[in-house]
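lol forgot to send this yesterday, sorry. struct tokens for the thing we talked abt
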């Protein structure tokens, strides 16, 4: 069955905009689970731009579905993951200036290092997923690291400007999924998925989990706004 991992980083981004305590990603994770999320995803970045160490540790205690910790393949992050023990780790590339994760990991170019990181985590019973572009060379290199999963980067599909290129990108994802499964990998996907473009990706045979953040949090901020304003008017009247 295809599952949904809800990425709650943007909740932490709003909180960090004021360096305050709300909204709390822990509460967001709980609500997402109540609504049917099958997993919670949080990216502890080296620059701590949104999710904080405290968040990932508390999520470990409170998440009742499964916790997917996204992180760079650095010694610091491996140490934290070994301590926190998320249900799985997704290794992503990180550049300090980027707005969000841009492009997949280059497994071919750093296979040795990534094989070591995968071993360190999987020897501690933390399955590893590698976030990669849907290119056969990257998929085969991923299998050679012994990682249990890959997450196919859906960004190019999401950003395709016309029907023809969208179709081509979808085809790459579907073929990539097939190649990966044949190589013994389990397959997730994510990045840039929205209410309008998710269905074709969700329909790819063998796909296990979609990790979605921005579109869900964007919608939440709008569908929740009316109620929030109404409640502030009540609070101004001393009636909340
Ligand atoms: N998967 C990975 C590996 C990511 O880095 C991100 C963004 O943090 C997502 C999925 C979710 O992407 P989006 O926020 O565009 O749904």
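and heres what i got for the seq, position by position
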């Amino acid at each position: 069955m295809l599952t949904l991992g809800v990425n709650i980083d943007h909740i932490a981004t709003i909180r960090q905009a004021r360096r305050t305590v709300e909204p709390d990603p822990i509460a967001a994770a709980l609500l997402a689970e109540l609504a049917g999320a099958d997993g919670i995803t949080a990216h502890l970045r080296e620059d701590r731009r949104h999710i904080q160490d405290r968040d990932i540790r508390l999520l470990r205690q409170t998440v009742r579905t499964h916790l997917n910790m996204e992180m760079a393949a650095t010694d610091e992050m491996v140490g934290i993951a070994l301590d926190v023990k998320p249900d799985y780790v997704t290794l992503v590339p990180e550049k300090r200036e980027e707005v969000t994760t841009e492009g997949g990991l280059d497994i071919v170019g750093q296979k040795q290092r990534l094989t070591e990181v995968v071993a360190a985590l999987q020897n501690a019973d933390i399955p590893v997923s590698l976030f990669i572009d849907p290119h056969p060379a990257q998929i085969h290199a991923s299998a050679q690291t012994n990682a249990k999963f890959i997450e196919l980067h859906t960004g190019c599909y999401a950003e395709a400007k016309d029907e023809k290129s969208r179709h081509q990108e979808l085809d790459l994802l579907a073929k990539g999924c097939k190649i990966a499964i044949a190589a013994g990998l389990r397959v997730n996907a994510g990045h840039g998925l929205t209410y309008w473009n998710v269905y074709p990706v969700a329909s790819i045979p063998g796909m296990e989990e979609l990790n979605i953040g921005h579109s869900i949090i964007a919608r939440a901020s709008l569908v929740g706004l009316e109620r929030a304003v109404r409640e502030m008017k009540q609070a101004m009247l001393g009636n909340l």
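The pocket of pyridoxine-5'-phosphate is lined by residues 7, 9, 43, 70, 90, 92, 100-101, 131, 151, 190-193, 211-215 (CB under 6 Å). anyway ping me if u want another try
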